[in-house]
Amino acid sequence: MKTLAVTGYKPMEMNIFKHDDGRIQFIKYALKKRLTQFIEEGVEWVIVSGQMGVELWTAEVVLELKEIYDINLGMIPPFENQDNRWPEPIQFLYQDIMVQADFYKPLYKGDYKGPFQFKAMNKWLVEKTEGSLFLMDEEFPGSNRFLYKEAKKKDNYPIYFLTPADLEDAVLEWQMSDPRYWE
């Protein structure tokens, strides 16, 4: 597998309401561990649509991993100015990632026109990638349910998960790596 789409919950779906919430570091840690495995197994491109939450955090992780690995980041938003109504700190993050991505191109020119743009983005992501990584619980897919349904339709399309249990493991591993944990 050379191309991997990554998506997951929006911040509010994880009860994260501040751009600097301390829990984000654990999510990024878990993403980094999982993405490193994929990269070491041959993934060359990580593709996101650039939505708030897991997708932007994934993009940050990929940009960090570029210092060590030969990995590319593609950001394909459903339309231009996707970040218009977001909180300012997240807009700045989006703009920064947009500039640093190896490939950036919105599917539709102009601003939001309707839900068909998100539907087209989901189809595009599944058609153009060889697998997907979802940070979600299958029982509670949240806004990911549409992309997840699209991914399940495609034959021989691997779907991987980072679950809440995986996040708990990452938190524990993070804490145990601190020598003070063992005191």
Describe this structure in words.
The protein has 183 residues and is of the alpha/beta class. It has one domain (3-182): Rossmann fold. The chain is built from six helices and six strands, in the order E-H-E-H-E-H-E-H-E-H-E-H. It has a six-stranded parallel β-sheet, sandwiched between helices. The longest helix is centred in the N-terminal third of the chain and has 18 residues, at 23-40. It comes from Cerasibacillus terrae. Pfam families: YpsA. InterPro entries: YspA.
Key terms for this structure?
6 strands; Rossmann fold; 183 residues; YspA; DUF1273 domain-containing protein; alpha/beta
How would you summarize the topology of this molecule?
Elements: E1 3-8, H1 23-40, E2 45-48, H2 54-65, E3 72-75, H3 88-100, E4 103-104, H4 116-128, E5 132-135, H5 145-153, E6 159-162, H6 164-176
Parallel strand pairs: 1-2, 1-5, 2-3, 3-4, 5-6
Distance between the termini: 43 Å
Shape, please? Answer: globular
Query: Per CATH, which architecture?
Result: 3-Layer(aba) Sandwich
CATH fold assignment: Rossmann fold
One letter per element, helices H and strands E, the order comes to: EHEHEHEHEHEH
Query: What number is the mean pLDDT?
Result: 94
Strand content: 5-15%
Q: State the helical fraction.
A: 40-55%
Summarize the structure.
The protein has 183 residues and is α/β, with parallel strands linked by helices.
